[in-house]
């Protein structure tokens, strides 16, 4: 199972300039952030996405994170 991830930013008076992300497994990563330029796919069972954006005057928000669990087991139906 895989999930397509898209990052969007809004609510900034000066306009959103760019966004950055990094992906890790169940534990936080120390890898550098990557510039978000297109959607990406997650295929691991458990992933954490850390992300932040900058506005047009280079103010950066504090990094935030979301943990995702991709369930590859099909549902079971009993009648």
Compute the average pLDDT.
84
The amount of helix comes to under 10%
Task: Estimate the strand proportion.
Answer: 35-45%
Taking the alpha carbons of the first and last residues, their distance comes to 26 Å
Provide the structure class.
mainly beta
Q: Give the low-confidence spans.
A: none
Largest sheet: 4 strands, antiparallel
- Shape verdict: elongated
Radius of gyration: 16 Å
How many H/I helical runs?
A: 0
Per DSSP E runs of 2 or more residues, the count of β-strands stands at: 6
What does this structure look like?
This protein is mostly beta strands. It is built from no helices and 6 strands. It has strands at 3-5, 16-24, 34-35, 40-42, 46-55, 64-69. The strands form 2 sheets. A 4-stranded antiparallel β-sheet has the order 3-2-5-6, with no helix packed on it. The protein has a two-stranded antiparallel sheet with strand order 1-4. The chain is elongated, with a radius of gyration of 16 Å.
Key descriptive features of the protein:
79 residues; mainly beta; two-stranded antiparallel sheet
In short:
With 79 residues, this protein is mainly β. The chain is built from no helices and 6 strands.
């Amino acid at each position: 199972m895989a999930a397509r991830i898209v990052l969007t930013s809004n609510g900034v008076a000066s306009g959103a300039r760019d966004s950055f992300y990094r992906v890790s497994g169940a534990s936080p990563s120390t890898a550098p952030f990557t510039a978000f330029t297109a959607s990406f796919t997650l295929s691991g069972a458990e992933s954490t996405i850390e992300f932040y954006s900058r506005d047009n005057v280079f103010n950066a928000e504090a990094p935030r994170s979301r943990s995702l669990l991709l369930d590859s087991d099909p549902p079971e139906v009993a009648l």
